[in-house]
């Protein structure tokens, strides 16, 4: 049997493309940058960041990242939504930390592997869409909390005190939520939904291997 040999040029091309996919390597020198942004009430994140959001009086955005990577972290507000993403592949040596202050926060959408902590939420309705393998922790109070989970993410929201919760989970996501009056929970994967509080109206639907469990603090 003849052995198939790849041309040397093809091997170099594959190696070159593989190196490019790793992205721009961080310098190791972390700098903090203040960015001016418009007001917003929604947040969309795509990438791998550590983000802290505090509901406060004025809008502000601070990014701590390696000096040669700052230019590749894009932040823009479109239709009242702050979008954070990379303009090209990067390979940081240090964690990218982002601190945000915003007067109102009504929605978070996250894909990738970011860790997001948001506190001081006080809204009539709050929407969350978590895909990928990210982690989100929420604190505050809302009337209606609507959640869409997919992938292998983790939601810690038992300290986001909601009256009504509507949550749907697919894939291997896990979630902790709080509902004081009603909860509608649906699972179509292997993840679990833990709910706290004493809701009177409880509606559940499980079509996978996951479980919906009542928990106590």
Major pleated sheet: 15 strands, mixed
Give the C-alpha Rg. Answer: 21 Å
* Number of domains as seen in the coordinates: 1
CATH architecture: 3 Solenoid
Number of helices: 1
Describe what this molecule looks like in 3D.
By secondary structure, the chain is mainly β. It has a single domain, classed as Pectate Lyase C-like. The protein has 1 helix and 17 strands. The strands form 2 sheets. The chain has a 15-stranded mixed beta sheet that branches. A two-stranded parallel sheet has the order 1-8. Strand 6 and strand 7 (81-86) form a beta hairpin. The radius of gyration is 21 Å and the shape is globular. It starts with 7 loop residues before the first helix and ends with a strand. The model is unreliable at 1-20 (pLDDT under 50).
Identify the notable features of this structure and list them briefly.
Pectate Lyase C-like, 1 helix, two-stranded parallel ribbon, disordered N terminus, mainly beta, 17 strands, 59% strand, 217 residues, 15-stranded mixed beta sheet
Summarize the helices and strands and which ones pair or pack.
Elements lengths: L7 H15 L1 E2 L4 E6 L6 E6 L2 E6 L4 E7 L6 E6 L2 E6 L3 E2 L5 E6 L4 E6 L2 E16 L4 E15 L4 E16 L4 E14 L5 E4 L4 E6 L5 E3 L3
Parallel strand pairs: 1-8, 3-7, 3-10, 4-9, 4-11, 10-11, 11-12, 12-13, 13-14, 14-15, 14-16, 15-17
Antiparallel strand pairs: 2-5, 5-9, 6-7
């Amino acid at each position: 049997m003849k052995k198939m040999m790849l041309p040397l040029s093809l091997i170099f091309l594959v190696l070159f493309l593989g190196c490019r996919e790793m992205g721009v390597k961080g310098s190791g020198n972390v700098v903090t940058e203040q960015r001016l942004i418009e007001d917003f009430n929604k947040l969309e994140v795509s990438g791998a960041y550590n983000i802290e959001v505090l509901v406060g009086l004025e809008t502000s955005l601070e990014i701590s990242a390696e000096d040669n990577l700052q230019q590749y972290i894009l932040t823009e507000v479109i239709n009242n939504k702050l979008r954070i993403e990379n303009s090209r592949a990067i390979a940081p040596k240090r964690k990218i930390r982002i601190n945000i202050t915003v007067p109102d926060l009504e929605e978070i959408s996250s894909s990738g592997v970011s860790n997001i902590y948001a506190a001081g939420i006080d809204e009539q309705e709050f929407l969350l869409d978590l895909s990928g393998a990210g982690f989100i922790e929420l604190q505050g109070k809302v009337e209606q909390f609507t959640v869409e989970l997919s992938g292998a993410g983790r939601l810690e929201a038992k300290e986001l005190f909601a009256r009504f919760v509507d949550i749907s989970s697919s894939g291997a996501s896990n979630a902790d939520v709080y509902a004081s009056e009603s909860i509608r929970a649906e699972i179509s994967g292997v993840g679990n939904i833990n709910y706290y509080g004493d809701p009177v109206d409880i509606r559940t639907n499980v079509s996978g291997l996951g479980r919906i469990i009542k928990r106590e603090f």
